[in-house]
Amino acid sequence: xxxxxxxxxxxxxxxxxxxxxxxxxxxxxxxxxxxxxxxxxxxxxxxxxxxxxxxxxxxxxxxxxxxxxxxxxxxxxxxxxxxxxxxxxxxxxxxxxxxxxxxxxxxxxxxxxxxxxxxxxxxxxxxxxxxxxxxxxxxxxxxxxxxxxxxxxxxxxxxxxxxxxxxxxxxxxxxxxxxxxxxxxxxxxxxxxxxxxxxxxxxxxxxxxxxxxxxxxxxxxxxxxxxxxxxxxxxxxxxxxxxxxxxxxxxxxxxxxxxxxxxxxxxxxxxxxxxxxxxxxxxxxxxxxxxxxxxxxxxxxxxxxxxxxxxxxxxxxxxxxxxxxxxxxxxxxxxxxxxxxxxxxxxxxxxxxxxxxxxxxxxxxxxxxxxxxxxxxxxxxxxxxxxxxxxxxxxxxxxxxxxxxxxxxxxxxxxxxxxxxxxxxxxxxxxxxxxxxxxxxxxxxxxxxxxxxxxxxxxxxxxxxxxxxxxxxxxxxxxxxxxxxxxxxxxxxxxxxxxxxxxxxxxxxxxxxxxxxxxxxxxxxxxxx
Length: 529
What we know:
The protein is an alpha+beta fold. Helix content is 39%, strand content 16%. The strands form 3 sheets. A 7-stranded mixed beta sheet has the order 1-2-4-3-5-11-6. A 4-stranded antiparallel beta sheet has the order 8-9-7-10, covered by helices on one side. A two-stranded antiparallel sheet has the order 12-13. The radius of gyration is 25 Å and the shape is globular. The N and C termini lie far apart (58 Å).
C-alpha cells in the first residue's frame, strides 16, 4: 500500500471517536424526506470548517447542498464526487438500545434511520476528509465534490441535481450504501444495477359539491343539501385505491421483481363535518426493472385516477415526485473500488459488538449465539461472484433489479456502487426473522455500526486517491461510460429540465409549537397505553 492511502486510513483510525460522535448526531436527528433541515445544516457547517466551499439549497431544494474543494488550482487534476444521504423513515423511531422503545420524548410514529442513511453520509464524509488530508500532505491535485442528497426514500434529489447540471464535468462518482440484501454485502455491483423508479402524487379536489345532483326543495337546508351528499375527494381517493389494488396483479407479469406502494398524504381534515372532503392526495411509487415496465404501470394508474375522479365528481391533478432511469454499470471503476475494498477487508464485529447483539437476543427471549452476526457480514465477495449469485433469481433478459436513485447519476458520469456490511443478526434455525426494530437499533449503537463506517470511509478514501493519480483509468472509465450509454439507448432524462422538487407538499416533519419540539403525528392516549 502506498504512503498516501496509508495516511488516509490512519486519519480514519485516528478520528473514529469523532466520526462516531458525528454519526450519533445525524442518527438522533432522524429527519424525514424533504425536511432534513438540521441534518443538512450540520453537514454544511462541518464541510465549511474543513475548507469546502458550500452552496446551500442546491437545485432549489432547501435541504440539499453542493460542496467543493480543490487542491492545486482550478484546472488541476480530476473531479471526483461522492455524497451524503440523511433522510429517515417515519414510523421507525427506535432508541440506540437493546430493547424496543422510541428515542426519548418521541412518538413511536416518529422517523428513524433504517438503512441507515445516517451512517451512509458519515461514512462518505469521513472518506472524503481522509482523502483531502492525504492530497494536501502528498501534493495530489484534484477536485472533490460532495453533494447533500435529501429525500432518497422518495428518490427525490438526484434527478433534480442532474437536471440542474451539478453532475456535469465529473470524472467519476462513488456511490456507497450499507448492505441491505445478499449477496450484495462487502462487494461492488458488477452488471446488474438498480432499475427504474417512478413516484407520482394524485390530488383529487371537489371544488363544486353543490352541483353533485338534485337538491331536495323540501329540505330545511335546500341550498347545501346536495353538497352534503356529494362523495367528495376522499371518495375519489379510495375509489382509486381500490381500483389499483384490484388491477395491480394485471399491470405487469409476475416475474423479474417489481413493487408498487402507496402513501396517503394528509389534507388536514379532522373535524368530521357533514361537508364533503374538498381535497385528498395519494402518492404511488413503483420499482421496476426498466422504463417500459414503469410506463405500463403509469398507464394503469392514470386510468384509475381519471375513473375515480369521474365517479366521485372531482378533478384530478398529477405531479411527479421522481422518475429515474435504470442504472449503468462501469467495470473500470468497479475494479478499482473492489481492489480497495479487498485491501481494507470486511468489518469486524468485536467482543463489545457481540455483547450488544447477545443482549438483543436475550431481550427477544432467545438463547444468545456465540457468534450472533450473519456470517456474510464479516467476509468479502468478489463483484463477479456476487453477480453470478444475483442472476440466479432473474430472467436472463432482465438487465436491472430493485431500485435506488443513484442510478440517475450513472447517466452523467462513470459510477461505482459498493456495499459494506451493516450489523445484521443470523436467524436461528426454526425461528422467524428478527423484528425490524432490532436492525434499526444496531444501526445506532456505536459498537455495532462503527465497524461499517470505518471500512466504508477507508474504501472511499483509497479509491479516490487511486483515481486522482490515474488519468488512464479515468479515460477507460469514460470510454466505457460512453459505450454503455449508447448500448442502453442513450436515454434522455425522464423529467423536463425545469422540473422542481415537490417540497411544497405536506410531507411529515418535526415541528416546534407551544408544546415544544414534537413529531407532527403526536402520541395519543391510546398509543401511550
